[in-house]
């Protein structure tokens, strides 16, 4: 499979790159926890934390700012606290960036890759986050309060949510997505795009009727496989989002990961208009082999590593 | 008060939920790539036997239930309680009708049972999958019929009624599957 992926990118003249696995900075995203290691030696006699990357996004964007053009990477990434049927703390990501593409053009390319790797994938749908929620749950995900979303969840055919106390509307949207919509998605590819602005992560926010994040996710048979952005390129806005993340981390008592100043510098210098996507290779392999558990596609999963 | 965090969740873990002791049947970690992590759990209420589903926010803690399973010997019933003894320590506990439940049909003096204790008191009494009991009453059956096509009802020493083949007679020992309540075979005294 990896050879097929590399051939796909070679045909398109996209350059394979490598970036550091360990870095002095990490993601500030409150939904993603980094594993930390420690380096002691020349340059850091009293030791300094090194964070294992949760995705190669920041250094790859620095390469884009340096003018490398379209690039891709296949690498191991690490996320603390994630282990289960579809999660392993160490997993393989395929991540690529396309200068000049918006998220719709990149969705098309993701579709081409998946259809080349899995010719029998079934139907392909593209639907906005808002339409998806309206279709499955008859709610508008942008204009509802947390309590309305909670009521919506309690009226679905899912039990055990009565006692759940969630911090905000995004968490209720996550419940509706994971508990109600994903299981009802059906077979084939489903691209979901234009997320609530509060779930923008590193995506550009478009000022529409309601502001939406130009972000997309790919689901295969109702399983989340990839996440992509029409990338935010404004350095000031990026710095603001990092600071908001750290503020939220501080409120909820999560570790305060140093924000990547190199990325901000690179963005100030100039990140080209581009779209990027990260695709979980292990999840894709699960789909290709019909495996129900991620352990079936990893030789030595976490508990045996 | 002992607690468990969601990262300790696994099948068989005993928790307190809504005031009742429960046991985890299945635990699934659910997390959108950029969103809130949840533990979606199927749980059996040990008092009622009902299976429920519950979703927790990952990182939450839940009170642990002081529940353990022990092998105890059934002694006797006084009509209101059923008395059991630990054959090693000779300690005795008594179970009420709701704890004994359906097992009452198969309880014979001196048989060993699996008893689930919550805070030291029995909440579930489980009999072995197979028990050997004496038939106290059954129709003599037709002479010459040894195939036992339709069978006949037989009352056992515990009061349970099972269908047995026609050739089985009052006073004989039979082996019964307690899960289905069905006759398995004739048995010998061991």
Notable characteristics:
heterodimer; A: 305 residues; alpha+beta; nine-stranded mixed sheet; three-stranded antiparallel sheet; 9 helices; 34% helix; B: 190 residues; mainly beta; SH3 type barrels; OB fold (Dihydrolipoamide Acetyltransferase, E2P); 3 domains; five-stranded antiparallel sheet; 1 helix; 16 strands; 2% helix; 51% strand; elongated
Summary, kept brief:
The complex is a heterodimer of chains A (305) and B (190). Chain A is of the alpha+beta class.
Description of the structure:
The complex is a heterodimer of chains A (305) and B (190). By secondary structure, chain A is an alpha+beta fold. In chain A, 34% of the residues lie in helices and 26% in strands. Chain A contains nine helices and twelve strands. Chain A has helices at 2-11, 57-65, 103-117, 129-137, 146-154, 169-184, 235-251, 261-270, 281-289, and strands at 15-16, 22-23, 36-41, 44-52, 71-78, 90-99, 124-128, 189-196, 205-207, 211-220, 223-230, 274-280. In chain A, the strands form two sheets. In chain A, strands 1, 5, 6, 7, 8, 9, 10, 11 and 12 form a nine-stranded mixed β-sheet that branches. In chain A, strands 2-4-3 form a three-stranded antiparallel β-sheet, with no helix packed on it. In chain A, strand 9 (205-207) and strand 10 (211-220) form a beta hairpin. In chain A, helix 4 crosses helix 6 (169-184) and helix 7 packs antiparallel against helix 8. The radius of gyration of chain A is 19 Å and the shape is globular. Chain B has 190 residues and is an all-beta fold. Chain B folds into three domains: 3-63, SH3 type barrels (Roll); 67-126, OB fold (Dihydrolipoamide Acetyltransferase, E2P); 130-186, Beta Barrel (OB fold (Dihydrolipoamide Acetyltransferase, E2P)). Helix content of chain B is 2%, strand content 51%. Chain B has one helix and 16 strands. Chain B has one helix at 97-100; strands at residues 3-5, 14-17, 20-30, 38-45, 51-57, 61-63, 67-77, 82-85, 92-95, 112-118, 121-126, 130-138, 152-156, 161-164, 173-177, 182-187. In chain B, the strands form four sheets. A five-stranded antiparallel β-sheet of chain B has the order 9-8-7-10-11. A five-stranded antiparallel β-sheet of chain B has the order 14-13-12-15-16, with no helix packed on it. The longest helix of chain B has 4 residues, at 97-100. The model of chain B has no long low-confidence stretch (mean pLDDT 90). At the A-B interface, helix 6 of A face strand 3, strand 4 and strand 5 of B.
């Amino acid at each position: 499979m990896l050879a097929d992926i590399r051939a796909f990118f070679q045909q398109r003249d996209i350059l394979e790159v490598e970036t550091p696995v360990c870095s002095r900075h990490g993601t500030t995203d409150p939904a993603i926890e980094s594993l930390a290691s420690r380096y002691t030696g020349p340059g850091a006699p009293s030791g300094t934390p090194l964070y294992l990357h949760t995705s190669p996004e920041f250094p790859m964007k620095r390469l884009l700012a340096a003018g490398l053009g379209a690039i891709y990477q296949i690498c191991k990434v690490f996320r603390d606290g994630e282990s289960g049927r579809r999660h392993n703390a160490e997993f393989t990501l395929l991540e690529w960036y396309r200068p000049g593409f918006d998220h719709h053009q990149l969705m098309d390319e993701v579709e081409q890759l998946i259809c080349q790797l899995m010719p029998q994938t079934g139907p392909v749908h593209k639907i906005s986050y808002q339409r998806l929620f309206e279709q499955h749950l008859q709610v508008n995900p942008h204009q509802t309060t947390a309590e309305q979303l909670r009521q919506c969840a309690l009226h679905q055919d899912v039990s055990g949510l009565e006692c759940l106390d969630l911090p905000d509307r995004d968490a209720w949207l996550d419940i509706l997505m994971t508990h109600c919509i994903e299981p009802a998605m059906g077979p084939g590819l489903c691209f979901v795009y234009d997320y609530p602005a509060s779930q923008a992560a590193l995506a550009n926010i478009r000022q529409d009727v309601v502001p939406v994040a130009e972000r997309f996710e790919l689901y295969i048979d109702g399983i989340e496989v990839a996440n992509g952005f029409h990338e935010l390129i404004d350095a000031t806005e990026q710095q603001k989002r990092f600071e908001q993340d750290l503020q939220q981390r501080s409120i909820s008592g999560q570790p305060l990961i140093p924000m990547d100043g190199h990325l901000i510098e690179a963005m100030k210098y100039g990140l080209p208009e581009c779209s990027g996507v990260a695709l979980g290779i292990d999840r894709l392999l699960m789909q290709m082999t019909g495996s129900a558990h991620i352990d079936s596609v990893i030789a030595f999963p976490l508990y045996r590593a | 008060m002992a607690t468990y965090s969601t990262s300790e969740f696994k099948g068989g873990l005993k928790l307190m939920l809504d005031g009742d002791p429960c046991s985890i049947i299945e635990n699934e970690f659910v997390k959108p790539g950029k969103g809130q992590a949840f533990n979606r759990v199927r749980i059996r209420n040990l008092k009622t036997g009902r299976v429920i589903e519950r979703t927790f926010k990952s990182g939450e803690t839940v009170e642990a239930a002081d529940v353990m399973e022990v092998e105890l010997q059934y002694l006797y019933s006084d009509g209101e309680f059923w008395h059991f003894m630990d054959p090693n320590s000779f300690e005795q506990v008594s179970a009420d009708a709701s704890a004994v439940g359906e097992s009452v049909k198969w309880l014979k003096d001196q048989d060993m049972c699996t008893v689930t204790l919550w805070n030291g008191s029995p909440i579930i009494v489980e009999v072995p999958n197979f028990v050997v009991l004496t038939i106290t009453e059954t129709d003599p059956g037709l002479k010459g019929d040894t195939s036992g096509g339709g069978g006949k009802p037989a009352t056992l020493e515990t009061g349970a009624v099972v269908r047995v083949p026609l050739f089985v007679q009052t006073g004989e020992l039979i082996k019964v599957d307690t899960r289905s309540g069905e006759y398995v075979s004739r048995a010998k005294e061991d």
